[in-house]
């Protein structure tokens, strides 16, 4: 892990607690610090988003969606490398996310290697 | 001041006394007249005879006092008018005769009075007995009329309910009583008289005879009740369904005296039951078809719902491998990750079971269920669908609710229809999207469950039509969901209705009777 990644953390936003917890466990196993949030609103309200080195977010959630969260961050000029994970993914959604600046778009269940490498790449930016 | 009634009574008594004593005077005067007439016509002097007659008449009709007066007057008249010259001895002898006669007559009058008293008492007794007898006859007639009326009512009731009654002595006895309706049900002519047991048995369908013989023989052997269904073959060839119940009557020593029981023609009831069963099956088929249609619409969400725990399990398994393949394997972390895999695997299995259970085409099975559990089960399945449209589902479920007697699959179908309608109503709404589900106790041992949304609300001017079959506001709807839901709820003894919310949205309510209400 680079020195840059040690001062910041990975934010995981997903309304499904089992997905959230297992993602946090995965990142822990590779030594990435992380924080979990059960909604986009909770993440934005936490005030930590400026310390976030990488954002892993679900797309479809009650309330604000992952894409809307990305749009909000972009509007606030908060450029966080974002990895989308979704069980509802389709090509149009993938295209939309990548065009808005997403670094990865992973359908569930995803390959842990790809996710870990994507996070590592985001942290190394 | 004297009372008028008393005055009148006293006057009447005085008049009676005067008449009685007047009779003494009149009878002695009559005797005197007759005796004088005899003397005038040179006939024998017979005053004594006439006097005795006068005394007797007076005693008989006027009583003792006037009779004694008549005797005294007769003695004076005889002494001074007919035999003034007679000796004192002779006069005393006559007076003695009158006195003895008067005493005899006193005795006779008393005897007569006693006799009259006894006759009066006997007459009163007879009158009383006669009155009692009349009353008893009237009571008997009344009871007989009531009995006839009661029998008529009973016969009418038996005719209306197709229920005949009978009494039968166990073998080798015979039928002792056979009501009018029994003749009709069993297809006998009442003119043919009370049927013999063998004749009755011959009208039973041949395929049922052996079974019935066995049932009856066992009941007789054990002195127990019996009940059996059978078919009657009428002489016209018509076959009727019947049911017979027999109750043993035991003597003081426990010996079997007879059986009393009923025969009920259940043909129409059986046909109605078959019709109801066919209707139930048709409704179940329709409900299943509707459920499958909805499930089809939910495919994407259900796949997502299953995908979530699978994704978590896959990630957990990868994490576990990572912990184990490190230079220094961390068993504690690996174990934690592996337990997560187990949890998520079970969760995926639970979801699949829920989907399978909603897809099954099972028989309607009602059992006591907690409505909140039914609600939470269906919410678990529809959560993804709601999430897909950024809709949150909020619950307000009352605690400690009594169970309801319900088919949980059918109630889940109703909940699924209502929640899906709510989701549909909010898909295109920009305002906050929320479905509120509430359960609470209501009056009359009912529970009320409501599903409210913040969607477009009920169709204007057509709110009352939403429960009609084939009425729909959805582009691809078939308009059966709410109709089926209402049929399901009503078949459970509840109600389903809808109201418009202010400022927007709609609420659907349904009630279900609790097991306490079902038990009554």
In short:
The complex is a heterodimer of chains A (125) and B (520). By secondary structure, chain A is of the alpha/beta class.
Specify Rg of chain B, calculated over alpha carbons.
54 Å
Count of distinct strands of chain B: 12
The largest chain-to-chain contact, stated as pair and per-chain residue counts, equals:
A-B, 25 and 31 residues
What's the name of the CATH homologous superfamily of chain A? Response regulator
What structural class should be given to the helix and strand makeup of chain A? alpha/beta
The count of DSSP E runs of length 2 or more, i.e. the number of strands of chain A, is 5
CATH architecture of chain A: 3-Layer(aba) Sandwich
CATH topology of the largest domain in chain B: Heat Shock Protein 90
Spatial shape of chain B: elongated
- Distance N terminus to C terminus of chain B? 77 Å
Please indicate the percent range of residues of chain A in DSSP E strands (runs of 2 or more).
15-25%
Provide structural commentary.
Chain A is of the alpha/beta class. Helices cover about 45% and strands about 20% of the residues of chain A. Chain A has helices spanning about 5, 15-30, 40-45, 65-75, 90-100, 110-125; strands at about 10-15, 35, 50-60, 80-85, 105. In chain A, strand 3, helix 4 (about 65-75) and strand 4 (about 80-85) form a beta-alpha-beta unit. Mean pLDDT of chain A is about 85; it is low at about 1-5. With about 525 residues, chain B is an alpha+beta fold. Chain B has four domains: about 5-130, no CATH class; about 160-265, Beta-Lactamase; about 300-365; about 365-520, 2-Layer Sandwich (Heat Shock Protein 90). Chain B has helices spanning about 5-40, 45-60, 65-80, 90-160, 180-185, 195-200, 205-220, 265-295, 300-325, 330-360, 370-390, 410-425, 480-490, 515-520; strands spanning about 165-170, 175-180, 225-235, 240-250, 255-265, 365-370, 390-395, 405, 435-440, 445-450, 495-500, 505-515. In chain B, strand 1 and strand 2 (about 175-180) form a beta hairpin. The longest helix of chain B has about 70 residues, at about 90-160. The model of chain B has no long low-confidence stretch (mean pLDDT about 85). The interface of A and B includes residues 26, 60, 85 and 109 of A.
